């Protein structure tokens, strides 16, 4: 058995772990950074992300004529989060602290580390249910130039510089099983050394044990992520009273090693795990035609123009439009027991509005290719989207509506999609375009969005008939529920210290990132405003790292 001592052990080498480790080492403390995966997975889930960050009243917003403010963002956050439990005390405090950060030094802190942003600002979680409903009142989704890898780079660089200086050591392929607790204080971790693995980033790695370890430290920071890669745990935590039964089939938005084990291990050691039923799963998941991890799903980042249909072809009711209210639409779908839903659109809509989440699905942004990025403005469908149209098993592409519906039924195999129903829905929608106004709420929201230059130029296509032959072919996309984020987690105070069920500090133990619900045990409440997951890892990792360094 191997053993060693350091000032701080950080468990998990994702974004929150990198930030926390860098902050601790910046203060001159020694750090042992452990991860069950190999070095090729450094950066964790952040590497795979689109690199979206929530900022408030940024220069990018102001240049686009978007009027944002701290007060407006606070209002949006609380209307969206829906905090309603006694245990939401610390999540509320973390939400307020994060909003202050997002409106304050977040951008300048990142800018000083050479993080740059794409000039267009996205409008995620548009709401649509009124000023007092959930959602962003304005676009706040800022994409890092370089996407997820561009977000990881500065913190990986800082950590590697500390490793060269001897202040930090890596422990890859070290799977922590348990915390070492002595007289109520966490004094280290122990677990298994796994055999080396050279599988590609994200692929399932070997679990063959070749040794054990027992490491001690002045403090432990858990940054081990969520539960999205563990379908059994997702189903165990599923809130059936709110959402109905969990879907029989879901695609998986994160690799298999995102299994939630350390969240449960910390709970067994005496930590308080709160809000486990609050999860953030998407309604627009595709089976990846070129999978990396088991049951690999890709999320569509939809513009607002596609018709969203039930399995039989009825249009989903207001306000369940693409990109407006993820949790509300998830609740509608799962309570109805739908095994899937459909987007119905055409080439003109998919070309402008059908972005795919993830660094690997956006090579132009990931590789900082200006020419390729400008190519998005042309007539051609983006290469990654075209690849899904050509190879994705959830896509049906046809030249006429009867052929499209026939293809949809052939794909599912049950004949449930009704041509007359689909044709009625499409023609009634298209008839609302004969005048500059109309009573279709989705079209009204689209017209309002196009008042913003960034939406009009880069994200939302001009309203036009779906059946216009010039905009063809017609496309139907089967949408699946996709597991992704854990909104609940280990309860922490504003220093990142893990708390016990009685509210006392658990000495020696800190947590940051998704394992802590991105702060406090769930700073998002029930819903996220998007761009706040990477930001939550940055903020909570920074807080925990600085607090630990100051306490030792």
From TrEMBL:
SUPFAM superfamilies registered for this protein in UniProt: FAD/NAD(P)-binding domain
GO MF entries: oxidoreductase activity, acting on the CH-CH group of donors
Keywords for the protein's UniProt record, in alphabetical order: Flavoprotein, Oxidoreductase
InterPro entries: FAD-dep_OxRdtase_2_FAD-bd, FAD/NAD-bd_sf, KsdD_DH, Succ_DH/fumarate_Rdtase_cat_sf
Keyword Flavoprotein: yes
UniProt keyword Oxidoreductase, yes or no: yes
Domain FAD-dependent oxidoreductase 2 FAD-binding: 7-534
NCBIfam families: PRK12834.1
Protein name (Swiss-Prot/TrEMBL): FAD-binding dehydrogenase
Organism the protein comes from: Deinococcus irradiatisoli
Organism taxonomic ancestry: Bacteria, Thermotogati, Deinococcota, Deinococci, Deinococcales
């Amino acid at each position: 058995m191997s053993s060693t001592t350091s000032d701080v052990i950080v468990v998990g080498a994702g974004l929150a772990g990198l930030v926390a480790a860098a902050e601790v080492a910046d203060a001159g403390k020694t750090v042992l950074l452990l991860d069950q995966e190999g070095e090729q997975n450094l950066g964790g889930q952040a590497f795979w992300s689109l690199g979206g960050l929530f900022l408030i009243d940024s220069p990018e917003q102001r240049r686009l004529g978007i009027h944002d403010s701290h007060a407006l963002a606070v209002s949006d956050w609380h209307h969206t989060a829906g905090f309603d439990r006694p245990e939401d005390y610390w999540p509320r405090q973390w939400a307020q602290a994060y909003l202050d950060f997002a409106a304050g030094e977040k951008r300048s802190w990142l800018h000083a580390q050479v993080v740059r942003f794409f000039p267009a600002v996205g409008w995620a979680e548009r709401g649509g249910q009124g000023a007092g409903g959930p959602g962003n009142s304005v676009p706040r989704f800022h994409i890092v130039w370089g996407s997820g890898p561009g977000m990881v780079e500065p913190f990986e660089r800082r950590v590697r510089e500390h490793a060269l200086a001897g202040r930090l050591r890596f422990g890859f392929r070290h799977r922590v099983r348990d915390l070492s607790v002595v007289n109520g204080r966490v004094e280290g971790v122990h677990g298994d050394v796994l055999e080396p693995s050279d599988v590609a980033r994200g692929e399932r790695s070997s679990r063959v044990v070749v040794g054990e370890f027992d490491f001690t430290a002045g403090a432990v920071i858990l940054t081990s992520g969520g539960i999205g890669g563990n379908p059994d745990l997702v189903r165990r935590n599923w809130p059936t009273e709110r959402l109905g039964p969990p879907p029989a089939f879901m695609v998986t938005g994160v690799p298999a090693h995102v299994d939630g084990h350390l969240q449960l291990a910390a709970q067994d050691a005496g930590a308080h795990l709160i809000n486990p039923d609050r999860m953030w799963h998407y309604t627009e998941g595709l089976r990846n035609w070129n999978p990396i991890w088991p049951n690999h799903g890709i999320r569509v980042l939809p513009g607002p123009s596609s018709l969203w249909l039930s399995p039989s072809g009825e249009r989903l009711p207001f306000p369940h439009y693409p990109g407006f209210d993820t949790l509300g639409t998830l609740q509608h779908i799962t309570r109805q027991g739908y095994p899937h839903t459909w987007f119905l659109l055409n080439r003109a809509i998919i070309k402008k509005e059908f972005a795919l989440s993830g660094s690997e699905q956006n090579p132009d942004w990931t590789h900082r290719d200006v020419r390729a990025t400008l190519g998005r403005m042309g007539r051609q469908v983006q290469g990654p989207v075209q690849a899904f149209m050509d190879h994705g098993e959830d896509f049906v592409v046809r030249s006429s509506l009867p052929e499209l519906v026939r293809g949809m039924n052939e794909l599912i195999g049950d004949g449930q999609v009704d041509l007359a129903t689909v044709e009625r829905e499409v023609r009634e929608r298209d008839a609302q375009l004969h005048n500059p106004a109309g009573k279709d709420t989705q079209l009204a929201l689209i017209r309002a969005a196009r008042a913003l230059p960034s939406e009009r130029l880069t994200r939302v296509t001009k309203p036009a008939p779906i059946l216009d032959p010039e905009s063809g072919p017609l496309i139907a996309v089967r949408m699946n529920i996709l597991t992704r984020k854990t909104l609940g987690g280990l309860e922490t105070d504003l220093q990142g210290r893990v708390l016990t069920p009685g509210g006392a500090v658990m000495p020696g133990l800190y947590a940051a990132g998704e394992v802590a619900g991105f702060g406090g045990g769930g700073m998002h409440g029930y819903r996220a405003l998007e761009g706040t997951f990477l930001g939550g890892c940055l903020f909570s990792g920074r807080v925990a790292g600085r607090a630990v360094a100051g306490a030792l």
